[in-house]
Amino acid sequence: MDAMTLARPHGKPLDRIMDVVRDDMAAVDAILTEQLNSSTDLIPKVAAHLIAAGGKRVRPVLTLASARLCGYEGYDAVRLAAAVEFIHTATLLHDDVVDGSATRRGRPAANRLWGNKPTILVGDFLFSRAFQLMVETGSVEVLRILSAASAIIAEGEVMQLATANNLATTEGDHLAVIRAKTAALFAAATEVGGALAGASPARIEGLRVYGDCLGIAFQLADDALDYAGEAGATGKDAGDDFREGKVTAPVLNAFASARDDAERAFWRRVIEKNDQEDGDLERAVDLMRRDGAVERTREQARAYGARAKAALDVFDPSSLRDDLRDLVAYVVDRDR
Amino acid sequence: MDAMTLARPHGKPLDRIMDVVRDDMAAVDAILTEQLNSSTDLIPKVAAHLIAAGGKRVRPVLTLASARLCGYEGYDAVRLAAAVEFIHTATLLHDDVVDGSATRRGRPAANRLWGNKPTILVGDFLFSRAFQLMVETGSVEVLRILSAASAIIAEGEVMQLATANNLATTEGDHLAVIRAKTAALFAAATEVGGALAGASPARIEGLRVYGDCLGIAFQLADDALDYAGEAGATGKDAGDDFREGKVTAPVLNAFASARDDAERAFWRRVIEKNDQEDGDLERAVDLMRRDGAVERTREQARAYGARAKAALDVFDPSSLRDDLRDLVAYVVDRDR
Fold first, then answer.
1. What is the pTM of this model?
2. A150 to chain B: which residues are within 8 Å by CB?
3. B186 lies in a domain?
4. Looking at residue A42, which CATH number applies to its domain?
5. Which H or E run contains A108?
6. Which of A116, A232, B5, B27 has the most beta carbons within 10 angstroms of its beta carbon?
7. ipTM for this prediction
């Protein structure tokens, strides 16, 4: 290890936060495995396929770190972090059925391996298990926060059905979908950490806003990556959103920047009609590059990132607070 | 009204119980409508299609009656009854997707009208709303009971995937599916009524056993009806289970009574291979009649019904207790 790496916090922000909550995360992983126990072996198989595939475990880490930032070190944070990850996994399973996904986290999606039926039902099971874990904390407030978030997530998924393949979607509508579909669980994950710790209302609200804005930034960065990244460890293939005709922020930016009817017709064909041919993705990326559509999405992500960072002002300076702030740039500027 | 009808409690048991809790049920219906409010109009449309179609509302009535039997008359019973109905509706929506159902309660199933995607997601939404309603009661015990029941229901649905079209299913396996899929919610519906009222552990347990056994009896009666009833107000068409190749109690009884290889081959073809032709349903019904397969299922239902009635011994005599006992025979011997 050389002087330079010693002079500043080393490692990626998520890894540094992970270091702080490492023991708790090991306990979370133990719960995630234990709680799949069932009288039917299909449940652990389908669920473990997705859970074992990893993912970044960002949401449970946020719950643990938020509780820790408020001085809480008890076991209930572990239960809640596991509950948050189960809710996330349940929504991914249902998403894959709804989207007819082929892959997830670089592996075949559960619906492709076991079919839609077990995938739907195992999602329902994980969702119920999540609530059982919350009940174990005995905190009605925590249950209030996470049941509200779950309803909002489902609403967001339904809203997305209406905006999918629809270029008349406004930026506001699209933001509402992102906020509900993705940011609601981030916001609940951080808020429950503070609630569990019995933090002041101002700090709990600070954590909620941090999670909300980080979640929006995360999703916008994800949207940008689809037109800029490469297939990588996250299992997200560049162009996946495009092939599904998904209306994402870069697409809305590009459509708004279209210079003539031919370009608008191109977007309508590939996105609204989802009628695509060889070379279309390349043309889409070229048009986006010309008009800075992806870069503008990243700027929007950075703006939300800045709000996330500011929301932590209500906490005293600490290395964990710094790490949570650094996580913002890491999430926004990640290249996969 | 003649002397005879005046001499005994008149009306069907469910109607008599409904009379006792009529005001509360009106409040439940109000919640079921109110709580569908959403920023997206697809949610109330899909959910109301099923909820407005009626159904017998047996489960919420059981929650209200159980709470009342324990002396509770507060508003939280209304919230819980609505939560129970939302959980039930959510499972029906997911069931219809999983089974590819064509009809439900005599109307086209939601998946046929709106497709699988909204049907799955609206189910998720209702499930979350159910938990939000439970949270409003502030009772962690109630949340514990209903989240455990929800996990068991999902497990039961997954178990059913393994027993479907499988004539090697044992009577015990089939009972385990029924108990998880159907009886768990009946048992939770009655148990939470007692828990909310702060009843003694013995009475709460009595209510739980009543719901469990009533639920099993209900499902066995339903299985019997498929081979004996006629399409009616419940929207269940006779032969639906048969056409799906469902392994139900009458089918298992009939298969066990088969007299030769030709009969066993018949059951394997129509149920396991689900390869059916004109006249097969009639032959199945004839074989069942010859061997008393449906009647035996009704006897099994009556045996569970007797256990349900006995479980209420722990309560002092009252007309409501009598009505709940009479409900058993009504459920078991209904003809639609």
1. 0.92
2. 124, 127-128, 131
3. yes
4. 1.10.600.10
5. strand A107-108
6. A116
7. 0.91
